Automatic annotation (TrEMBL):
Protein name: Histidine--tRNA ligase
Organism: Mangrovimicrobium sediminis
Reaction catalysis annotation: tRNA(His) + L-histidine + ATP = L-histidyl-tRNA(His) + AMP + diphosphate + H(+)
Swiss-Prot/TrEMBL GO biological process terms: histidyl-tRNA aminoacylation
Gene Ontology terms: cellular component: cytoplasm
Record domain Aminoacyl-transfer RNA synthetases class-II family profile: where: 1-324
Taxonomic lineage of the native organism: Bacteria, Pseudomonadati, Pseudomonadota, Gammaproteobacteria, Cellvibrionales
E.C. code: 6.1.1.21
Length: 428
């Protein structure tokens, strides 16, 4: 019978990869709280309607990427494809929309896409949402937060910030007409996807990866020229703030986001080191979303980054957090009575040395095979109990690493002195 395998595009993250994930998560946790952001943990499954209404019906995500199913009550549910919709839902439902409200989240997201490097069906995002402030100082803050994160992770040289303003809904409607009028004249030169989007979601054409379409867009009207006065002023102010903080950016007038809820500021951090999956972090302002979802109208700005892509980038940049050895102490025993002594001593040592990694040898075996495991565990010392030790009330301590081997070798200690001896040795 063939064995069961993981679902395509849903990867296991193995013990030799988790240190780099933990490194990223640890830095994020500390950094975000240093800016006053509190963590929110949200359900992975929500009502399908939540995503349809927030992300937008004619987006790639809602049209073709969602994992949607009926539960036993015949309700339509969806595995969350992103975090903002759920966060907004939770903020409304739990009356979190005080001003300002700074939140962050992390966890798995699900999209039915073609799996490839940096693109999975289950992937992980870390994101931030800041509610209640409509002025560009808040946009600057969330961007500064990401800029600092790259520095702390050691990848600041690998990413660049792309920035745009897409203005208000009304300005976009006017621009949309101008863009469609221009592109209609060149319909046959557009790629197939873009022809379809001409009626459904023309702004997404700006985002097309097709070289022919991009060339056509060189002559197209530019969204930035259509901004209303307030949006233009906010964009200028955001740029002043970023300049003052020394954060470099490129204005990309074709940057639009694949989700419908954005207005004004949109940004992406991109890298040239991950091939086609070059966007590591993306975000923007969404002042209409809370109201549209039934909450008291409240502005918001946020971003999400793909943790898999970030991890790939760290690896490409040669950032390798130290992988700690599995154990500090490895406990070996021979015979059932000795195993009782070893087990009890292990528990006492865990009381005495909180945080010390103490691994018990289970499953028996010869002295040679147990010592081989002890050595492979990376532990500094093995503690050995056999018949002789039990009779004499002692324990054998064996140095496993070259640095200790010469000075300590292997010695027998009274059981009662073990804690004290270890305390002295571990302090060295
Ligand atoms: P893309 O254009 O690469 O499909 P997107 O615009 O759909 O990205 P967002 O919805 O803005 O992505 O999500 C924010 C970030 O989450 C992305 O910039 C990326 O880093 C990450 N991300 C999105 N989809 C995936 C995926 N399927 N696998 C891995 N990471 C992803
Ligand atoms: Mg996508």
């Amino acid at each position: 019978m063939s064995s069961i395998r993981a679902i395509r595009g849903m990867n296991d993250i193995l013990p030799d990869e988790t240190p780099i994930w933990q490194f990223v998560e640890g830095v994020v946790h500390q950094l975000f709280s240093s800016y006053g952001y509190g963590q929110i943990r949200l359900p992975i499954v929500e009502q399908t309607e939540l995503f349809q209404r927030s992300i937008g019906e004619v987006t790639d995500i809602v049209e073709k990427e969602m994992y949607t199913f009926r539960d036993r009550n015949d309700d339509s549910l969806t595995l969350r494809p992103e975090g903002t919709a759920g966060c907004v839902r939770a903020a409304i439902q739990n009356s979190l929309l005080v001003t300002p409200q700074r939140l962050w989240y992390c966890g798995p997201m699900f999209r039915y896409e073609r799996p490839q490097k940096g693109r999975q069906r289950q992937f992980h995002q870390i994101g931030v949402e800041a509610f209640g402030i409509a002025t560009p100082d808040m946009d600057a803050e969330v961007i500064l937060l990401t800029a600092r994160l790259w520095k702390l992770l050691g990848v600041a040289d690998s990413v660049t910030l792309q920035l745009n303003s897409i203005g208000s809904l009304e300005a976009r409607a006017v621009y949309r007409e101008a863009l469609v009028a221009y592109l209609e004249q060149h319909r046959d030169a557009l790629d197939e996807d873009s022809q379809r989007r001409l009626t459904s979601n023309p702004l997404r054409i700006l985002d097309s990866k097709d070289a022919g379409t991009q060339a056509l867009l060189d002559g197209a009207p530019v969204l930035l020229d259509y901004l209303d006065e307030a949006a233009a002023a906010d964009f200028t102010r955001l740029r002043e703030l970023l300049d003052a903080a020394g954060v470099a950016y490129e204005i990309n007038p074709r940057l639009v986001r694949g989700l419908d809820y954005y207005n004004n500021t949109v940004f992406e951090w991109v890298t040239d080191q991950l091939g086609a999956q070059g966007t590591v972090c993306a975000g923007g302002r969404y002042d209409g979303l809370v109201g549209q979802m039934g909450g008291k109208p409240t502005p918001g700005v946020g971003f999400a980054m793909g943790v898999e892509r970030l991890v790939l980038l760290l690896e490409a940049a040669g950032v390798r957090p130290e992988i700690p050895a599995e154990a500090d102490l490895y406990l070996v025993s021979f015979g059932e009575p000795a195993q009782c002594a070893s087990l009890a001593a292990g528990e006492n040592l865990r009381d005495a040395f909180p945080g010390l990694r103490i691994v018990q040898h289970n499953g028996g075996g010869s002295f040679k095979s147990q010592m081989k495991k002890a050595d492979r565990s990376g532990a500094r010392f093995a503690l050995i109990w056999g018949e002789d030790e039990l009779a004499a009330g002692t324990v054998t301590l064996k140095a496993l690493r070259d640095t200790d081997k010469e000075s300590l070798g292997q010695q027998s200690l009274p059981q009662a002195e073990l804690e004290q001896t270890l305390r002295a040795l571990l302090a060295q």
